[in-house]
Write a structure and sequence with these properties.
The complex is a heterodimer of chains A (727) and B (159). Chain A has 3 domains: 6-215, Aldehyde Oxidoreductase, domain 4, CATH 3.30.365.10; 221-300 and 358-434, Aldehyde oxidase/xanthine dehydrogenase, molybdopterin binding domain (Aldehyde Oxidoreductase, domain 4, 2-Layer Sandwich), CATH 3.30.365; 320-350 and 446-723, Aldehyde Oxidoreductase, domain 4, CATH 3.30.365. Chain A contains 17 helices and 31 strands. In chain A, the strands form 8 sheets. A 7-stranded mixed beta sheet of chain A has the order 13-14-11-21-18-19-20, sandwiched between helices. In chain A, strands 16, 17, 22, 23, 24 and 25 form a 6-stranded mixed beta sheet that branches. In chain A, strands 1-7-6-5-4 form a 5-stranded mixed beta sheet, with helices on one face. In chain A, β18 (359-364) and β19 form a beta hairpin. The two termini of chain A are 38 Å apart. In chain A, 58% of the residues are buried. With 159 residues, chain B is α+β, with helices and mostly antiparallel strands. Chain B has 2 domains: 2-78, Ubiquitin-like (UB roll); 85-153, [2Fe-2S]-binding domain (DNA polymerase, domain 1, Orthogonal Bundle), CATH 1.10.150. In chain B, 36% of the residues lie in helices and 16% in strands. Chain B contains 6 helices and 5 strands, in the order ββαβββααααα. A 5-stranded mixed beta sheet of chain B has the order 2-1-5-3-4, sandwiched between helices. In chain B, α3 (85-92) crosses α6 and α4 (102-115) crosses α5. The model of chain B has no long low-confidence stretch (mean pLDDT 96). Classes of the chains: A alpha+beta (727), B alpha+beta (159). Chains A and B meet through α5, α7 and α16 of A and α1, α2, α3, α4 and α5 of B.
Chain lengths: 727, 159
């Protein structure tokens, strides 16, 4: 395969240890642009075959290959390909020259997080600066060599050219001279920013890790293999927060293959080191087999259940709740309305279900240094957690970033890292902690359930004149738990003259957390399904109703109205909105904005009774310029499939524990259920934003609305089967 | 513990395994063949799919000791340089997102194409429905299988 080879070799920091002088500038993200000049003479460096690293993001090798460092963890969002593409674009090298290397956790890179779709917008300036500054240095080096003006020189495919004299020099041949030149001022750099300037960006580029993925080479966290490594399992209390009173540790230690078994007292931090029993063995299978003999007496302190949550939600519905926002006079406007539409929506807790169950490999060196191989979306947070829990200074902890078998927000919490670190320090051998599927599903940080009670008033013009919303979700100490918050400024606030949002919270002991497009991935379905009901009651076309809703604002608009309606128009046009369909077919639509991205979908479903097949989804997307067309489409396709999948799923609780543990009870979507997805990107000049999340939220309601159009069944509760619908 | 001999990717390997150890853990923990992935442990997700005598088998669900006279192919053995038509098609369609399930997907697709060189959408659904992709690469898996079928009929066809 003719692809840049990716390499996970651990540390690029070693490049900095040689006799070097540094020039640094602080970049937008807080990362450092570090110019590295070698004190060696120019010719010396070149003859020695050394690489030249003009900054932390790239190295020009002696053979004119270019090593580009990807600083963020890769969880399937495509950053390990997209980020180096930006550097390569601005450095002006051929993609075939590029080799990509994964950075470890290193504070000099600033933010190293998979989350909030923020990788692209945060990295955009730094990466362009890194590539552009290096290119400018190479041009300056050639100009010095040739005794010409830099402005007379150009670059192409990793060479500097001087057209007037016909001279050309590969970047590698210039690296010694370039290393002696001053690093350019960031403000002086002309950064490419518009799609028409790009050669590489916007193209379909396969992922740099594909060769290793497709030949089964070690790549993921659980693939880490160290000399003398042991394998661990860790049993925690099924009831969240339970503590170990006693366990049959001696009996477990006597079982085949077992090297260690011990109680971990743990902490009270649900997102940290919870109490449990660790079992360590020479193979994972033996550790897990021994676990089946484990008898633990747990001390629990609650018995949260889904049934109890439902009872409380029903009672809270009758209470006024806390008013988070009130515009105009909702009650008066409802009184004056020509028609009132009232509906309640409910969605359940869901699990992340990363396909690679949580794991982490740890090695506690005799020197007191701790090394971790962590599939974490937020490794810095993990390092802090480990440091605090184990009492090890952060600068004694080195975190290697390994490929992540699915993130979706789960791995922003680093409980698995601190568990592995604790076990490794106890056993003083390299150890890999591998959770089972059941551990993963029963000890997740779930997307919280919620109830939405809506009332809308329709005026004589068929517009929404009032929107009243009582939102009931989960809290602790009077505040929404992680993932349960709803912004008072979320649309339709600002799009209707009379608006009220009230909130009520149910106390919970269940751990919750960010789940792909937190909040949006759930409540967009409620809003956009209810809009469908309102438009229908008003006797208006769905597209017309939504475009009209997006045509005016009352006070500060909650989203960019033009960009939002732009995506809706594109999706509707490509889907042939308004075309004649047979009776068992339906089209449905939804728009949304979150995490910097504007996405609308139109879905087409075909129904046989209550069994529906989602045949196709057309997507209109505005995220500014597309960096990697393949990665961008992949995220849209993936979000649509994920949304359809998640709409079939729920996690329920009894006795303070999750009741689902594996795919027999939590059946993700399979290939025969997946729709075709057609993407249409609006390539605006806006600064690029990320795409790991924005296409998700509007997919669920577009599909649900299409199901209504095809079957007449309005889905007001998730999963779909609660409405009798199967996919 | 028992010493067994397995023929993996054309090579006979001797190893000591607990009697009940599934093939998955023998591959991963005893032979360091980590391309075969653990996803559910009960044969539901297909991440651990390998080929046994050319047919897809879930390695988490079958004892290593039961496979001593069989030909086992793991992702490492399909073609070490990634030149197999299915691997090429998978790269050219850029199927992987996180990539964790893809070893199983590639091997199941290889088995499908060996018995059905020009599969229909229904053939693809039937052959591939046992393997979950959490990232939702299903539309690309479908395209890649069709592309691989094309590469196999014109072996010189370039990616």
């Amino acid at each position: 395969m003719k692809r840049p080879q990716a390499d996970n070799s651990p540390d690029t920091g070693g490049q900095m240890d040689r006799r070097t002088f540094l020039q640094t500038s602080l970049l937008a993200s807080g990362a450092l642009l570090i110019g590295v000049g070698h004190a060696d003479t120019a010719s010396g460096a070149e003859q020695a075959g050394e690489s030249w690293a003009p900054n932390l993001y790239l190295r020009i090798e002696a053979d004119n290959r270019v090593t580009i460092v990807s600083k963020n963890p890769e969880a399937g969002q495509g950053v390990k390909t997209a980020f180096p593409m930006v550097v390569a674009e601005c450095l002006d090298v051929d993609w075939q020259q590029v080799r990509v290397e994964q950075a470890p956790l290193d504070d000099r890179y600033g933010r190293q997080v998979v989350g909030g779709s923020r990788g692209t917008p945060d990295g955009w300036d730094d990466l362009r600066i890194a590539g552009t500054a290096a290119r400018q240095l190479l041009i300056a080096a050639a100009a010095v060599r040739w005794g010409v003006q830099p402005a007379e020189c150009s670059t192409a495919n990793g060479s500097v050219n001087h057209a007037a004299s016909g001279r050309t020099a590969a970047y590698a041949a210039l690296r010694g001279t370039a290393a002696t030149l001053p690093v350019p001022e960031v403000a002086s750099l002309e950064l490419k920013s518009r799609p028409e300037e790009f050669r590489l960006l916007g193209r379909f580029v396969p992922g740099v890790d594909n060769p290793k993925i497709l030949t089964g080479q070690p790549l993921f966290g659980c693939d880490t293999r160290l000399d003398g490594m042991l394998y661990a399992v860790f049993e925690k209390c099924p009831t969240f927060g339970g503590k170990v009173r006693s366990a049959n540790i001696e009996q477990i230690r006597a079982l085949p293959g077992i090297t260690h078994a011990f109680v971990v007292e743990g902490t009270d931090n649900l997102a940290g080191l919870m109490p449990g029993v660790a079992i360590v063995a020479t193979s994972w299978w033996e550790a897990n087999a021994a676990r089946r003999q484990l008898k633990i007496d747990w001390a629990t302190s609650h018995a949260d259940s889904s049934e109890e949550y439902e009872r409380q939600a029903a009672a809270l519905k009758e209470q006024p709740g806390e008013t988070l926002r009130a515009d105009g006079d909702v009650e008066k406007a409802l009184g004056a309305a020509v028609k009132i539409v009232e509906a309640s929506y409910y969605y359940p807790f869901v699990s992340h279900a990363n396909l690679e169950p949580q794991n982490c490999t740890a090695l506690f060196h005799e020197s007191g240094k701790l090394e971790l191989w962590a599939p974490s979306q937020y490794p810095k947070g993990g390092r802090q957690l480990v440091a605090e829990t184990l009492g090890i200074p952060e600068d004694r902890i080195h975190v290697n970033l390994v490929r992540i078998g699915g993130g979706f927000g789960r791995r922003l919490v680093n409980d698995f890292m601190v568990e592995a670190a604790w076990i490794a320090r106890e056993v003083r051998r390299p150890v890999q902690l591998q959770w089972t599927r059941e551990d993963d599903m029963r000890h997740d940080f779930y997307r919280p359930a919620a109830w939405h009670h809506f009332r809308a008033g329709i005026d004589a013009d068929g517009r929404m004149s009032a929107f009243d919303h009582h939102f009931i979700s989960f809290g602790r100490d009077g505040k929404p738990v992680s993932g349960a918050g709803l912004s008072p400024d979320h649309y339709p606030a600002g799009l209707v003259p009379n608006f009220r949002l009230r909130q009520s919270l149910i106390e919970t002991h269940v751990p919750t957390g960010p789940w792909r497009s937190p909040g949006h991935s759930a409540y967009c379905w409620a809003y956009q399904s209810f809009f469908d009901e309102v438009a229908l009651a008003a006797g208006r076309d769905q597209l017309d109703f939504r475009l009209d809703l997006l045509s005016r604002s009352f006070g500060e608009p909650p989203l960019d109205l033009a960009r939002t309606s732009g995506t809706l128009r594109v999706a509707a046009e490509k889907a042939g909105w308004g075309r004649k369909l047979s009776a068992n077919r339906g089209l449905g639509m939804a728009f949304h904005f979150d995490h910097g991205g504007f996405v609308s979908h139109v879905a087409e479903v075909v129904a046989t009774g209550n069994a529906v097949h989602v045949e196709k989804v057309w997507s209109g997307i505005d995220i500014g310029p597309v960096i990697n067309l393949s990665g961008a489409r992949n995220q849209v396709e993936g979000c649509v499939v994920d949304a359809l999948s998640t709409a079939q799923l729920e996690i329920t609780f009894a006795d303070g524990a999750a009741q689902q543990g594996n795919f027999d009870q939590y059946g993700l979507l399979r290939i025969n259920q997946a729709p075709e997805v057609e993407c249409h990107f609006i390539q605006s000049d806006n600064s690029p934003s990320g795409l790991g999340e924005p296409p998700f939220a509007p997919a669920t309601p577009a599909i649900a609305n299409a199901i209504f159009a095809a079957t007449g069944t309005r889905i007001r509760e998730l999963p779909f089967r609660r409405a009798g619908i199967s996919v | 513990m028992a010493e067994i001999s397995l023929k993996i990717n054309g090579v006979s390997r001797s190893l000591d395994v607990p009697d009940d150890m599934p093939l998955l853990w023998a591959l991963r923990d005893k032979l360091n063949l980590v391309g075969t992935k653990y996803g559910c442990g009960i044969g539901l997700c297909g991440s651990c799919t390998v080929l046994v005598n050319g047919s897809p088998v879930q390695a988490c669900n079958i004892k290593a000791a039961a496979l001593q006279d069989k030909e086992i192919t793991t992702i490492e053995g399909l073609s070490p340089d990634g030149s197999h038509p299915v691997q090429r098609a998978w790269n050219d369609e850029d199927v992987p997102q996180c990539g964790y399930c893809q070893a199983g997907q590639v091997l199941a697709a290889t088995a499908l194409l060996a018995r059905t060189p020009q599969p229909t959408d229904t053939d693809i659904d039937n052959a591939m429905a046992g393997i979950l992709c959490r990232c939702g690469t299903y539309p690309r898996i479908r395209k890649a299988i069709k592309r691989a079928a094309g590469y196999m009929t014109s072996p010189g066809g370039e990616s």
